[in-house]
């Protein structure tokens, strides 16, 4: 249970901090943090939780990471479903708190016809810069693949694992710097689920891509590291 609570808290912090920065601070005229600030916020959430609770659960905070670690031989298959459930619950709880806070702002409403509504992910007209479905799929697939390779490599027995949290957090920052304009950045099915549930409409209909592409990318990343990069001696 300690592991599951750690995953819940870590994923809560990722969504609350990352999506919260986008909702509260990104768009303030002259003072807003913009795309770069949101990218940094997502990286900081993972970095801080990696050191806070990573020693308890492994610090996945993401269903795709859990699956990527499993296919690489670094995670027990019996724990996949409980981990993913905990991550999704944590993400949804965070989205609930974000909604409650935003509800206190005069005139607040979620416009399900707008790209990025409530920090949701999307493609076509729901992409921040109108990228097509194929572009969104490729971006989410490739970026998740590299994210998994970085995570496994940074935590390898031969690596300096004291800096693993820093490497992983900076990797997620870089991923967001690349892909916020494309999909509003997922690489995390739980993060996409939580926001889409509150938006509904087309963002919820497009949610499939933000589960399928990251999971496929994670599977390939895990296999590549296991078979091409890992020192099995």
Automatic annotation (TrEMBL):
It is a multi-pass membrane protein. The chain crosses the membrane at residues 35-53, 80-102, 131-151, 163-184, 204-225. InterPro entries: Aquaporin-like, Aquaporin_transptr, MIP, MIP_CS. It is found in: Membrane. Keywords: Membrane, Transmembrane, Transmembrane helix, Transport. It holds the Pfam family MIP. PROSITE patterns: MIP, PROKAR_LIPOPROTEIN. The keyword Transmembrane applies. It comes from the Bacteria. Belongs to the MIP/aquaporin (TC 1.A.8) family. This is Aquaporin Z. It comes from Flavobacterium okayamense.
């Amino acid at each position: 249970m300690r592991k599951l609570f750690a995953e819940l808290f870590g994923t809560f912090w990722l969504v609350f901090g990352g999506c919260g920065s986008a909702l509260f601070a990104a768009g303030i005229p002259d003072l807003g943090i913009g795309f770069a600030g949101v990218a940094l916020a997502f990286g900081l959430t993972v970095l801080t939780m990696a050191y806070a609770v990573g020693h308890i659960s492994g610090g996945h905070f993401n269903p795709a990471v859990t699956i990527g670690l499993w296919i690489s031989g670094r995670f027990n298959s019996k724990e996949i479903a409980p981990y993913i459930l905990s991550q999704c619950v944590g993400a949804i709880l965070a989205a609930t708190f974000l909604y409650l806070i935003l509800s206190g702002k005069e005139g607040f409403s979620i416009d399900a016809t707008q790209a990025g509504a409530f920090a949701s992910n999307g493609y076509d007209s729901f992409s921040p810069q109108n990228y097509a479905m194929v572009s969104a799929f490729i971006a989410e697939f490739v970026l998740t693949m590299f994210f998994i390779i970085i995570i496994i490599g940074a935590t390898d027995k031969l690596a300096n694992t004291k800096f693993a949290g820093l490497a992983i957090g900076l990797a997620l920052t870089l991923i967001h710097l690349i892909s916020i304009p494309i999909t509003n950045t997922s690489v995390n099915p739980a993060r996409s689920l939580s926001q889409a549930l509150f938006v509904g409409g087309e963002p919820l209909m497009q949610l499939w891509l933000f589960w399928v592409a990251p999971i496929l990318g994670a599977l390939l990343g895990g296999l590549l590291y296991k078979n091409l990069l890992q020192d099995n001696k």
